[in-house]
Amino acid sequence: MEIQDRVVIVTGAGQGLGQMIAVNLAEQGAQLALIDVNESALRITQDQCHLLNSKAMIYTADVSNEQEVEEAFQHIVED
């Protein structure tokens, strides 16, 4: 599947598997919406994606909180 320039949402992007997925998608040219509860960890992932010339926006949210997820998705749509 071609993901060049498609917007991809990655949850848990601040560390571990989510971070690895985000970086891999950045290598493939995806535009990323990165979500995690840890903003400082998200910024590290964002920096890694930017080094790969990928647009990566960060959104702080706890995915176990429905309202926070809805707000994050609203911001993603607006951005």
TrEMBL record:
<dbReference type="InterPro" id="IPR036291">
    <property type="entry name" value="NAD(P)-bd_dom_sf"/>
</dbReference>
<comment type="similarity">
    <text>Belongs to the short-chain dehydrogenases/reductases (SDR) family.</text>
</comment>
<protein>
    <submittedName>
        <fullName>SDR family NAD(P)-dependent oxidoreductase</fullName>
    </submittedName>
</protein>
<keyword id="KW-0560">Oxidoreductase</keyword>
<dbReference type="GO" id="GO:0016616">
    <property type="term" value="F:oxidoreductase activity, acting on the CH-OH group of donors, NAD or NADP as acceptor"/>
</dbReference>
<dbReference type="InterPro" id="IPR002347">
    <property type="entry name" value="SDR_fam"/>
</dbReference>
<dbReference type="Pfam" id="PF00106">
    <property type="entry name" value="adh_short"/>
</dbReference>
